[in-house]
Design goal:
Two copies of one chain form a homodimer. Chain A is α/β, with parallel strands linked by helices. Chain A contains 14 helices and 14 strands.
Chain lengths: ~425, ~425
Amino acid sequence: MQNNNKRENAMMSAPTPFDYTPLLAEGLPPAAARWNGFPKYNFVGGNNDADQVPVEKLLAASTSVLTREGATLATYGLNSGPLGYRPLREFLVGKLKRDAGITCTADEILITSGSLQGLDLVNGILLSPGDTVLIEQECYQGSITRLTRRDVNVVGIPLDKDGMRIDAVASALADLKAKGIRPKYIYTIPTVQNPTGTILSEQRRGELLKLADDYGVPIFEDDCYADLIWNGQRPPALYAMSKTANVIHIGSFSKSVAPALRVGYIVAPWNVLSRIQAIKTDAGSGALEQMVLAEFCAAHFNDHVPKLARGLRIKLEALMEALAEQFGTAAEFDDPPGGIFLWVKLPDNVDTMKLYQAAQAAGIAINPGTEWSVNARHSKSRLRLCFASSSVQEIREGVAALAEVCRREFGVPLRSANMERAKG
Amino acid sequence: MQNNNKRENAMMSAPTPFDYTPLLAEGLPPAAARWNGFPKYNFVGGNNDADQVPVEKLLAASTSVLTREGATLATYGLNSGPLGYRPLREFLVGKLKRDAGITCTADEILITSGSLQGLDLVNGILLSPGDTVLIEQECYQGSITRLTRRDVNVVGIPLDKDGMRIDAVASALADLKAKGIRPKYIYTIPTVQNPTGTILSEQRRGELLKLADDYGVPIFEDDCYADLIWNGQRPPALYAMSKTANVIHIGSFSKSVAPALRVGYIVAPWNVLSRIQAIKTDAGSGALEQMVLAEFCAAHFNDHVPKLARGLRIKLEALMEALAEQFGTAAEFDDPPGGIFLWVKLPDNVDTMKLYQAAQAAGIAINPGTEWSVNARHSKSRLRLCFASSSVQEIREGVAALAEVCRREFGVPLRSANMERAKG
């Protein structure tokens, strides 16, 4: 009795934890799940090849720049102001000219905390709830969810092997104009599109720019995979080709150097960039990362990127071979000209959202098509496989394990690769 | 004629630059002005003492952590997941226990890109337009502008030498309740308040927590100056004293190590932190800065901070002496127990917004009181002076120059220090 009373008293006096639920803003995403480490076979996320992080050169860059300028860390924005570390912007002026044909000054570049902050900032100056934008029908999930969270209407433009279909852009713009709707922008990843891997042809770029001018709709060009092209050949950026400054361009060092560094950039004319800078209220992006990157890139970027791309190409080939071996004709895909992902079509009866769940339970992470598309019907049997962070061995094992899950759940591929070989 | 025609043709064919104006979202802040470097006498911003950036130790930390773990930069979030680099969170578990009395686990800490991102994230899960919050009447400008931009109603609570006045909190909560309004939070910088420099007494902390519990209003505790206290003595954090987990706590390394690094943190129970993590869609904060900080702090934080504080105290004394010398009794202030700023009252006829403009023209940057307060009448003749980034010599010269401007504009101080001395 006494014990019971004690326990009761303890329970009565234990304070009730505060309930935040009634105070939460409306429309929040669900609570995050606890992170439990990476799955055994990880084919998601823009992670890169750990063996290709230029650790020694980053370390040397860190040492030299800290020795020379470390004391400037005492000042927000170093001695460069709110646009970001000036030597990094100056490196970008040269890089953008050489690689993308862009002519700009260091004062038309804003360094951001990854290109994701770039997305947020551009959206921040242009979008209000109820607005309309055009995007590629298959598209980076982070761009789609950002638009959804802002209650923006999304018109998806289908792609073919040359990227966004310009006839579809023309129809969509005409339809919207007939309804009195002026879209806020046309968002495109024209150079190694995510997830399809396509490169918008130069001719289509010209046509897209003309449409954008005709309809008074700016282009939002996301170029963050453009450095990783096997043959190093790419058309000029839309930003470079525009005659009317109707393009806002964003890019990143996540794919070309290291994603964990969180350094991206926005290129825009000052009349736009000054509006963007005004809503970048973070007191600057991380200075140490900008300093180390600037120091590294000035000396090594041009050598590092082709080497990185060669290594990624080897992994892509391993992935394509493993898919052919394990899935046979059940897995359809184009050999992409660059990037870190492969967009795969499975037979129509495969629902990749269900495959994703079953694979997750088996320690395999994939991106289901519907999360990377605004056309659920088109993407239902498609999936995105990232190949940069796994080893060739993991790619082979992971694809075999995925085929096993897919066979169990959907009956395709019909037989395992080994059985087929044994029969053949 | 021919020349004119040519020019006319060229003008006609020059494409009109795209006009973004009609596409901009409503309610944007004005365009940013071009950055033109720092003023000669810079008494604004949370900049720190360049001579006290521990460059060599940061460099050693960078070298050891990159050598050991540099390859993990290939992965978003390193191998630590979305809450941030685990060794840094583990350092914070010990630091928060020792310095602030907070008991928490590494999974109740989210690393942010500066405490400004912490402000945005906490606001993001709690605030909608039309909501009401309580804040200290004199308050960090970045917190005030964030609330204004979200169309949130702000109720200012006056402060005295022991910080926020709890009687005023009680009245405000009762008034709001009578109107059927439940505020979303009580925001406070209880430990070295910005700009007043006050420390909320332990007794008041208990009273504030009780009021918060009684009214069902959580406390948002911003502790980002709390490391810089001359005698190292501080009351426990509100987070530590709460029995009901009704406090969200944020902090920063900006003031204790280096502001340009952009590393802060949020401490909250997981049921709150999981909502916050869900809206942190930036793919992680900068990894290199987290790694270098964790490595540096584990070895040197406890030695570095008191040394930094001693240096800041010397600058504060120089500032107070210069004010006494140049302004005499016209400048009133309390000797703050820590921090990097002094909150100064000038005679009632001085409008510090006008003083700010005149000083700016003379190469002197100050924070006018009305930008750091929600009570324009109370703050009109007050100003904030940051003393961390200027040298003692610059402080002396800058205060003399400011007194000169103030005398010219407002007739106070009556005579220059030299003249007074000559007479005396």
